[in-house]
Amino acid sequence: MTIRHEIVEEFTFRNGTRSFTTANAVIDTGAHHTCITQAVVDALELDAYDTADVSSPGHEPMLAFIYRCLVAWTMYEEQGFASTHEVLCIPGAGEVLIGFDFLRAHELSVDIQNQGLVGTAPDGAVPLTGGGYVLNMPRSYLLKLNGERANAAKPGAILRPHPAWRFKLPVFIKK
């Protein structure tokens, strides 16, 4: 059994109707841009539109090819955690790295203790005990599914009724 010391999540990359999903995208807060592998480039049939000089963690200069594609946190893609980004491909790279560009765009941070990403759920999002969340669910149906867990949520608290739920309850402002 291999023990990983990185935070990894499943991410999907899209270009038109083509998609590529990886279960082991490394969350790298030190990377300014998301980096993909040649396998992603080939699967999506991406065309490079520019190059960039980058440095490796060992500060070795390298040439990276710049592409554009949709980057999506697979588990929450339908809830808006997907956006188009410039992504880099460094020849010979063996891992997909999710960089600070995606984290900043979606206001996500790394939860070291629970080994995953955390963020603020979009307006109308409600946690489900079966995993994930749903938007604009009728309160009666939510109570039926979640029982007391729905009433135990406090604004600003990180909700963990299920390992898949990693978001803070949205703040509601009453007028």
From TrEMBL:
This is Peptidase A2 domain-containing protein.
